[in-house]
Amino acid sequence: MNELPQNRVRPDGGATAATASFGVSGMVAPLRRVAMRRPGRATLEADPARWHYAGPIEPDRLLRQYDAFAACVAASGAAVEWIGGSADDGLADAMFPFDPSFMTPGGPILLRPGKTLRQPEVASHEALYRRLGVPVMGAIEAPGTAEGGDLLWVDDATLAVGRGFRTNQAGIDQLRNLLAPLGIQVLVFDLPMWQGSAACLHLLSLVSPLDRDLALIYPRLFPVALYEVMRERGIRCLEAGDDEFMASGGLNLNVLATAPRRCIALGGFPETVRLMREAGCDVTLFDGDALCIPCEGGPTCLTLPILRDHRSPLTETIP
Questions:
Q1: pLDDT in tens, 204-244
Q2: Could you give the 3-state DSSP secondary structure of residue 72?
Q3: What predicted TM-score, i.e. pTM, was given to this entire model?
Q4: Total domain count for the chain?
Q5: For the chain, which terminus, N or C, has the lower number of CB atoms within 10 Å?
């Protein structure tokens, strides 16, 4: 049982004693514990050209929308662990903690982002796990690269990995070696070039699991072989349309499941929401036109699951 003492760090740097658990082997089981990092000065003053952001930053609106999103996450029942960092660390993308590390049933793996500007973020994740008393099970090393956005749990024992500009074969080989002792199979699927190496296209830009047997996908760019794997395993795919995918930069597909058929999604894309609700999903919406659209990251990107309640011997629910 992964039950460890830890200090829960608040955004203001304070801490409260608590006891909690870790372990993730899927993307839809109830989210019990999650790490987040509030946008700092580096984000609010970021140069869009350097960070490949789609538009100018509106600091006040961005922070208001972030706080509203964080409130949605807390309302779902998840305990939030805040990632620390210096106000002057220059890490504009650090508010998207999904990419620099990856939680497994055996503990976290420190990743190595393919976006070079993001590689220094890994140290703050290592510090988070050290502070929480969560043992790191391994790390991706050069020349390997891997980002969390390219890692998709198909089921408890199968991880799909998107090979593209952010995650390379050397990183995939290291992931496979780290996960093999846990009995986890790694399946690799090539991603399209789409808008080039500077743009953010992850595997999870094209799919969001909503339940063990339900997912939202963008079919025009989705790997055929992965679609066949999901169909063979009884996963029904809801197909999002072109207009909202293009208008959102793919972020209408970026949906955070907080429990089976319960999710948080970006507002402003009614047809995508209709698809999910007609499939029986309870969808909570938040405004992200200043937070998500300019910075190319949605609700999944803004969170790092530490514990999902899979009711397995390796995890324990936080009350």
A1: 999 999 999 999 999 999 999 999 999 999 999 999 999 99
A2: helix
A3: 0.90
A4: 1
A5: C
